[in-house]
Amino acid sequence: MMAESPRVSVIATVLNEAGTIENLLSSFFQQTLHGAELVVVDGGSSDGTWERLQQFAARNSRLRIIRDESCNLRSSPGPIARGRNRAIEEATGTVIACADAGCEYAPEWADKLTVPIISGEAEYTLGGSYIDPEQATIWDIAAAPFLGVKLHSQGIRKSCTTRSMGISKSLWKRVGGFPEVNLFGEDTLFDLRARELTIPVFPQGAMARYNPRFTLRSAIERLALYAHSDGVLGVRRMRLVRNLLRCALQLAALIALPWTRLPLILVALLEIFFAFEHDVRGAFSRRALKSAPARFLFSLIAPWVVAFSHIAGSISRHNRPNPQNARAQRG
């Protein structure tokens, strides 16, 4: 008699996600992977998220919901990591698929993400994330390359993000769980520790579709939050160096402008490269051409946002709240 495949638990942690929670739940209930459960930890939502979760849970036993108000910034420096750890502790599966309330998932997502773990090929898989240019805002497209997000669903995206991450429960235990030390960056720290024990596999077709709906302001704020977190954690220092160099080049080009335009032209070409390097084949589509000015502008702004925020985080060593936690703190 063949042994049963390990049961898969999809996990997520949410806080004030009333606008996105139904997309996550609908995605889960459309998954082709049979026998999976969804464990959602709510960190104390006050916007109706918890009530929506209760309504869904009452209709489907595969959804398990937990309200844990220690999973927000009022109670923990790392509430997202704390919520993920609580969800994994409660999960019955030996294979964990991490998901995010800001994303949607194709029906085969959980299957493709977890097959390498179920088969014994791997203990750790990374699916990455993408945006759909046809449904995204111009600023979603402009910010994507600087947030580690792919601009189409084909191929693979080798980025460590809990929007699409598969883990054996035994690896999670050996790593020590997601570090509960900071608001953002728990996936980066987990990835660094996991790679000391194993090599990740990047399965095809396991990307999450990310739906941020950015404006210019919110895209800059998200980039700043991530860079600030890197500074607090003391990670991605080479990214800081690269962005400081880009800032220095932009300044040098402006200073040299009275004498020559060549440095400014070179800087413009460099920023065009950064804006389009992950989307060469789609650079001349109608949608890409329409978003080109925004992508170029964001590429010019990004190094300043990253450098300033990273340095500020390394000095303050203190979390900046995201909108969900800011709302929870006011509540």
Briefly say what this structure is.
The protein is of the alpha/beta class and 331 residues long. The chain has helices spanning 21-29, 49-59, 79-90, 109-118, 138-143, 169-175, 186-194, 216-233, 237-256, 262-276, 286-316, 323-330, and strands at 8-14, 37-42, 63-67, 95-98, 103-104, 124-126, 129-130, 165-168, 208-210.
Mean pLDDT: 90
* Assembly of the depicted chains: single chain
Could you name the CATH homologous superfamily of the largest domain?
Spore Coat Polysaccharide Biosynthesis Protein SpsA, Chain A
CATH topology tier name of the largest domain: Spore Coat Polysaccharide Biosynthesis Protein SpsA, Chain A
Number of helical stretches of at least 4 residues: 12
Strand line-up of the largest beta sheet? 3-2-1-4-8-6
Helical content stands at 40-55%
- Sheet having the most strands: 6 strands, mixed
Order of helices and strands: EHEHEHEEHEEHEHHEHHHHH
CATH architecture name of the largest domain: Alpha-Beta Complex
Shape: globular
* Class per helix and strand makeup: alpha/beta
**CATH classification, class level of the largest domain:** Alpha Beta
Q: Supply the number of structural domains.
A: 2
Number of strands: 9
